[in-house]
């Protein structure tokens, strides 16, 4: 079955461009379009896409709130729906909030066509597409402006072992599983096990949420050294 995609952007030209790119992919089917957050929410409920390609900055309801509403509804309705956010890195300071809202990652709007299609496939499979190094750059730049980074650590960290905390810290610093394995002198399989334990114990969906959680709870600090 093709991956069902809903396009959400307030610029018709961009939606047309994304449609042309994605309709050339046999495994992807565009099931609808929306020009704002309100339309995104109603279209997602009606069309049940596998992936929503979501702009952040839109008039009225923005992409962050739309993402939050769509994924909350999807969880309650029992639908496996994912949101992939599109942003302009230099200008958009809300991408971290989109990740908190449950988005599975983000891409820049000038992403090459093959990477866009590949990202949709990855997200549809339930993984996160944000590169750890880019996640760190965003958090280093914006996390100190977000109120929740100054709140007390959330419960759950005490359930992690010391090694799991170390893995979470390295993951948040932008390291891949192989790089973490090399740093800790363990196998990559062992690292995957630790990452899985971290996600389960903290109730997180993927690595992206784990990185955000690490910053929010003070495991790592914006701009901090490795």
From TrEMBL:
InterPro entries: CheY-like_superfamily, NreC/VraR/RcsB-like_REC, Sig_transdc_resp-reg_C-effctor, Sig_transdc_resp-reg_receiver, Tscrpt_reg_LuxR_C, WalR-like. The modification 4-aspartylphosphate is found at residue 55. It comes from Nocardiopsis composta. Keywords: DNA-binding, Phosphoprotein, Transcription, Transcription regulation. This is DNA-binding NarL/FixJ family response regulator. SMART domains: HTH_LUXR, REC. Residues 4-124 form the Response regulatory domain. Residues 153-218 form the HTH luxR-type domain.
